[in-house]
Amino acid sequence: MADTVSLLRRLILESPPGEWAVNQLRELLIGALKQGPIPQHVAFEMDGNRRYARSRRMETVEGHHRGFEALARIMEICYKCGVKVVTVYAFSIENFNRPKYEVEGLMQLAKVKLEQLTTYGDILDRYGACVRILGQRELIRDDVLEVMDRAVARTKHNNKAVLNICFPYTSRAEMTTAIRSTVQEFLSPTPPKNTPFSPSRIRQKILSGQLDGRDLLPTIPDDPLDDGEYDGKDVDDGDDNDSSGSATLPPGSPEPRLLSRSGSYGSTTLPNPDNITVDTIERHIYTADDPPLDLFVRTSGVERLSDFMLWQCHQDTHIFFRKCLWPDFDLKDFIWVLLEWQWRQKQSDREKPSGRAGTVKARSMME
Amino acid sequence: MPMNFENTKAYRADERLGHSLLSEAQRQAIFKASLPSPNDGSTIVNKPGQAQRRSRLGVRRFIKNQIFVFVFALMHGIFSLYIKSRQTWHGVSYRISSILYYHHATPQYIRRDIMGLTKKPKHLSAILKTEGNHRAKNDLDRLIEETAELATWCACAEIPMLSIYEKSGVLKKHMPRVYEAVVQKFTFYFGAEHPTLSVTSPHQDDFPTRMLEESRHGHLQLHLISYQDGRESIVDLTRTLADMSQRGKISPRDISQELIDAELSEGILPEPDLLILFTPHVELSGYPPWQIRLTEIFCLQDNETFGYQVFLKALRNFASAQFRRGK
């Protein structure tokens, strides 16, 4: 009995009209979901490929292939809904501990898929998505790395959406890298300030104005006040200056002062480590350019983060643990996640009236 | 749109044979068929001289949009009905299980509940929340009461370490009061012969400062952490490391995952085995990121209350979860 039902179901669903109807329904649901707030950045921990393969009596590698198909489906849904960034956990550094042939299979999978992506590059172009590889590059084999770089270069020009592939990645390694490069940054002298207004030019302008056109520029204050201003500036950029010794110079002699100051500008001064803030480290995190993580989804019922996006998701990200295995994950599961997320968003907006006005406005604009 | 079944079958067969079955052109045709149309989305190709057609398209788009808005409203209508009934159902069933599993303030009952479990966490962690809109004093009393309860259950279950995350850090400021409350609760449960307790917190002296000799009833370490011990602690560590390397004491190459891990787990918080949330959904609200790597996160869906049954279910869930560590 159950067999005939499932056979009938398959017959209907796999026939062209059935397929057409299912696709129309998908389009309708995605279009409808788009009317509400949409998370800007979604992370997926694609867990359960191997259990799926085991339950279907397949090779492990084939389970991973099915997982990739699921990823393609989900990516499509995300980009159609308007998600800007999708981050997926493709390969953990810990995964190198798996049986060798499986690691080999995964590498091969990544290589083939990315190769197909570069040959038929318009797949991602249609969504305006660019690929980025996050992780410890030095652990990737050369041939795979080459294909990856090609895929990244091929899709670089797309700017509507981003696909972050975490390949060999762990969050702790990411944080370690971020800390290390922050320390590195603070080891090099302060780079010249990135403004088109050079302080030395301004100073020279003022000095030359004082020298030849005092009456033309009445706004420039007279000498004593001017000196005071200079001293203030000296303290400002001179608290970390080294041996230039502008402080030891007797005051009131403009020319050596100018020399010493321009000297201190070119010299090496180390930035103060107390200036390191959360934002400094954030800039060195792999996802620095992406919007904050709104939604984190892990499949297969495991309720752990397993070293993925720790830095990004420990604040106010909504974390969802789903029971189903990743290759089975589709719109029918994801829609519940999105609906609940939208519902919570509405709920929290209701608590903060100011936020609600924003969404109502956005909604009316959409309509 | 997703691939149709014919194409999927062909593609999978091709894949199995290592991409030797289909020719390039065939494979490309499969991809083409499943791609969205190029002007999918907001970009409408303007064809000159087709103003009439465009206006019809506009009407169609408008109708389509209206349908979407309608379906959206319908979906959310159904969804809020679903979620309301789910919340009610969960609320009722949690109420029932909190009656069924009650500790009666007796360590023996708790021990009996725990006895069947194959493994227990060595380090349990919990997130407790302040309710901002209540009076601060009441809120602190409630927090301390909850901390004391939780600590006592841990002592009964013979879990040696409990860490409590409270975002604002108000618990950390009242360490002696927390200590008093927990000891009082211990006495209430165990009588005179209760386990020893030490209250610790990062960057603060342990309480009590001088450890009494460990009683034969075990020992519980209660560790209090706050938002400051999350990202901020990593920033602090980075500052220290930057300072040291500026002085030439270390080189950036020496900064390894092991070093950071050692510093953070000794200085702030060792990695917990199980994290219990008493919120309706999983949201970490600033819990230290470095340490939750492999922590089992337990959250009862739609649960809003603090209770023994949440603690018990978390422990049961933990015992049944398996660890694979990437294998």
Structure explained in plain terms:
- Chain A: One of its GO terms (molecular function) is ditrans,polycis-polyprenyl diphosphate synthase [(2E,6E)-farnesyl diphosphate specific] activity.
- Chain A: Belongs to the UPP synthase family.
- Chain A: InterPro entries: UPP_synth-like, UPP_synth-like_CS, UPP_synth-like_sf.
- The complex is a heterodimer of chains A (367) and B (327).
- Chain A has 15 helices and 6 strands.
- A 6-stranded parallel sheet of chain A has the order 3-4-2-1-5-6.
- Chain A has 367 residues and is an alpha/beta fold.
- Chain A is globular.
- Chain A starts with a helix and ends with a helix.
- Chain A has a domain at 38-174 and 293-340: Undecaprenyl pyrophosphate synthetase (3-Layer(aba) Sandwich), CATH 3.40.1180.
- The model of chain A is unreliable at 215-267 and 355-367 (pLDDT under 50).
- Chain A has helices spanning 2-14, 16-33, 49-55, 60-81, 100-119, 122-127, 142-154, 171-187, 199-212, 223-238, 254-266, 278-284, 310-313, 331-351, 353-366, and strands spanning 41-45, 85-89, 129-134, 161-166, 295-298, 318-321.
- In chain A, α3 (49-55) packs across α4 (60-81), α8 (171-187) crosses α12 and α14 (331-351) crosses α15 (353-366).
- Chain B is extended, with a radius of gyration of 29 Å.
- In chain B, α5 (136-156) packs across α7 (175-190).
- In chain B, 50% of the residues lie in helices and 10% in strands.
- By secondary structure, chain B is an alpha/beta fold.
- Chain B has a domain at 105-320: Decaprenyl diphosphate synthase-like (Undecaprenyl pyrophosphate synthetase), CATH 3.40.1180.
- Chain B starts with a helix and ends in a 7-residue tail after the last helix.
- Chains A and B meet through α2, α4, α5, α6 and α8 of A and α1, α2, α3, α8 and α9 of B.
